[in-house]
Specification:
By secondary structure, the protein is of the alpha/beta class. 26% of the residues lie in helices and 37% in strands. The chain has a 9-stranded mixed sheet, with helices on one face. A 5-stranded mixed sheet has the order 4-3-2-5-6. The two termini are 41 Å apart.
């Protein structure tokens, strides 16, 4: 309390005493006990009111013992029960959490984790994913700037998230308790399958499998890929104690349109404890993407035949070489390749302004650049009569579509008139040009997209030399032909705007997140924040339908469909204000990633403990863990001084006291006839 406050309180005593004396004693001839009592009441009342006006701060010191937190993390995923360790896990948890000495020294706080992390003292071991890294990250957020130990009860088999070795940090010790049978069983496993979601009809698509073997003796296994009762591929793989992994690549034919379900299996004559991880299903959607391409040219040139062969290396493409006046209907073609256009192409350009077919314009020494400047505005040409050789420079930052550098810097130069090329608007450059060793910073191969219409520009003739050179370098035309096919793929895809755009996967693994997002645009193609989107999901087998609302999140709407059983589903997204609909389907594959493991990951959990200067334990070593925690001098309780400062005006009982004083004074005065 400050000196000023003390002086004010003394002044208040003086004022309260003076006023009460003046009112009840100074002018009163008969100084009865009643007057003295009333003077005392008035003194207390005035003094209490003055204290409220001064409002001194009352400081209270208390002491509290703060224990060190002990984070007790329990793996609640289904892999614990699959390894028959659920009862042992609960037993270990209770043995630590109920220990009286542990409770006296630590503030025990229990958590469970699977795909999510939350506080809990009850565990059902039904989690569909294991994310130990998220548990470590969330724990650090809870106990910021605190020294604490963590007891991690788990099998160490993580199925999602980042590497958990780097999620707990190095400052706080992590004591893993490794649950699960550590006896090594013979086990064959398909660790991972890599396959594209889509394939084109009559082509082939690659499948890459990573196989793993746990065992000590030599073993020969069969890796097969089948569809229904038909075996499409079969390979024999050898494993040994020193060779426990294998990578297998197969090419499968895409000869049926639509969703195709395949099964990859690894097997041997040896008996295994867990055969669930020997099989993985995967799905590929085969698309019939027939594309008709017209190469239009008024001259003969080796480039024409080279383009035709490169494009038709994909059986889904059909190329027709035509003169400008031979095209009857532009609607018969998906892409127009305009080779060295001149004024003979005028009617073709005029017709295409209405048809809006995507074009691939190739220039050269016979091109009429004045005419070309009049027909398009993406590139502006100022060319001379002289010829020049242009070498290619690959742009690694190009992102309009994925493509690789096939060695463009080593390909022969293309020939084009000498001059300057200016870029107008948004143009993506895949290849720029240089003359000998001097970069021109002009595009050589560029792409544009404007209002849903796509165009490509190749500024130079003699690309037939490119195709020959790639064959010399690789003993195959494949790399060059794939490069050209990427260009045709870009041009044959129409990016028209729709009011209702829905994003979803065609296939989901059971237990994984199933999220469908949508965007709804008004007539000006602006995102509509007032849209009302719903989705109806129907099981194709049971015909059971479930309805959900899509919730707005920033610039899109989304719905989470977790909990659906494995099977095929049809769904319809509907915008209720306009009745705009989108219908499609997806399939949930019967794949439980938590059943892929036979043993706990002892090595990684031991590494985690060592990295945090701790030690890993097994369920039969809990007493040793408890002893280690109790004897660790780092974890001591702290006596914390808590200072509470309360303004006197916050004391409600003082107001009640003043009210009682005033009421008592009035009652005494009334009783004694002094009113």
């Amino acid at each position: 309390m400050t000196t000023t406050t003390l002086l004010l309180l003394l002044l208040s005593l003086l004022i309260a005493g003076s006023l009460s004396y003046f009112q009840y004693i100074f002018k009163v001839k008969n100084k009865s006990k009643v007057n003295l009592f009333l003077a005392f009441l008035r003194f207390l009342t005035i003094f209490s009111i003055l204290i409220l006006l001064i409002n001194p701060i009352i400081t209270k010191n208390t002491f509290e013992i703060v224990k060190t937190p002990l984070a007790l993390l329990v793996d609640n995923s289904s892999s614990i029960s699959f390894l028959n360790s659920n009862e042992k896990t609960i037993e270990v948890y209770k043995q630590i959490s109920a220990n009286k000495e542990i409770q006296d020294k630590f503030e025990v706080q229990s958590y469970q984790f699977s795909d999510e992390f939350e506080s809990s003292e009850l565990f059902d071991f039904e989690g569909t994913q294991t994310n130990i890294a998220k548990a470590g990250k969330d724990l650090k957020s809870i106990y910021k700037n605190t020294l604490y130990p963590t007891v991690l009860i788990t099998d160490g088999n993580q199925t999602s998230g980042n590497d958990y070795l780097y999620s707990f940090g190095d400052a706080n010790k992590v004591y893993p308790i490794i649950v699960g049978d550590t006896t090594r069983f013979l086990d064959l496993k398909i660790n991972q399958l890599n396959v594209n979601k889509y394939a084109f009809l009559k082509g082939k698509f690659p499948v890459e499998a990573f196989l793993q073997y746990s065992g000590s003796k030599d073993l020969t296994a069969d890796f097969t890929v089948s569809q229904g009762n038909s075996v499409l591929s079969k390979q024999r793989i050898s494993f040994s104690a020193n060779s426990k992994t294998a990578t297998v690549k197969v090419l499968l034919p895409a000869d049926k349109i639509g969703t195709q379900i395949y099964k990859a299996t690894i097997s041997s004559v040896e008996k295994e404890k867990n055969t669930y991880n020997n099989t993985k299903n995967f799905v590929v959607e085969v698309i019939d993407q027939k594309t008709n391409i017209a190469i239009v040219s008024s001259i003969n040139h080796p480039d024409l035949g080279s383009f035709k062969r490169a494009i038709e290396s994909n059986v889904q493409r059909k190329v027709t070489i035509l003169k400008p006046n031979e095209i009857k209907s532009l609607q018969d073609y998906n892409v127009l390749i305009l080779y060295q256009p001149t004024t003979e192409f005028k009617s073709l350009f005029e017709s295409n302004k209405i048809a809006r077919i995507n074009t691939f314009i190739i220039t050269g020494n016979s091109t009429d650049f004045t005419f070309l400047n009049q027909q398009q505005s993406n590139l502006s040409f100022k060319m001379s009569a002289g010829k020049e050789d242009y070498l290619a420079v690959f742009n690694g930052q190009f992102n309009a579509f994925s493509t690789e550098n096939i060695g463009f810097e080593n390909l022969p130069p293309l020939q084009n008139p000498y001059g300057t090329v200016s870029v107008n608007g948004s143009v993506s450059v895949l290849l720029s040009s240089k003359i000998r060793n001097i970069d021109t910073n002009f595009p050589l191969l560029a792409f544009t997209e404007n209002q849903g219409r796509r165009s490509a520009y190749l500024l130079g003739e003699n690309t037939w030399k490119w195709r020959l050179q790639t064959h010399v370098a690789n003993q195959s035309f494949e790399k060059y032909d794939i490069f050209i096919d990427k260009i045709i793929q870009f041009l044959s895809t129409t990016a028209g705007k729709k009011s209702l755009v829905v994003e979803h996967e065609r296939f989901y693994n059971f237990g994984a997140g199933i999220e469908i997002s949508a965007q709804y645009f008004n007539k000006n193609y602006e995102f509509d924040e007032k849209a009302r989107l719903t989705i109806a999901v129907t099981n194709s087998t049971t015909k059971e339908t479930k309805n959900y609302d899509l919730l707005k999140s920033s610039n899109y709407y989304k719905v989470n469909l977790d909990g659906l059983k494995a099977g095929a589903y049809n769904f319809t997204v509907r915008e209720l204000n306009t009745n705009n609909v989108y219908s499609s389907n997806f399939e949930i594959l019967d794949f439980d990633i938590e059943k892929q493991f036979v043993n706990p990951d002892v090595e990684k959990l031991t590494q985690l403990a060592a990295q945090t200067s701790a030690k890993a334990y097994f369920p039969n070593q809990i007493d040793a863990l408890i002893k280690s925690l109790l004897e660790n001098e780092e974890y001591k309780a702290i006596q914390k001084n808590i200072v509470v400062k309360t303004p006197l005006v916050d004391w409600i009982w003082l107001l009640v006291f003043i009210s009682i004083l005033l009421a008592t004074e009035w009652f005494v005065r009334k009783y004694n006839g002094l009113l």
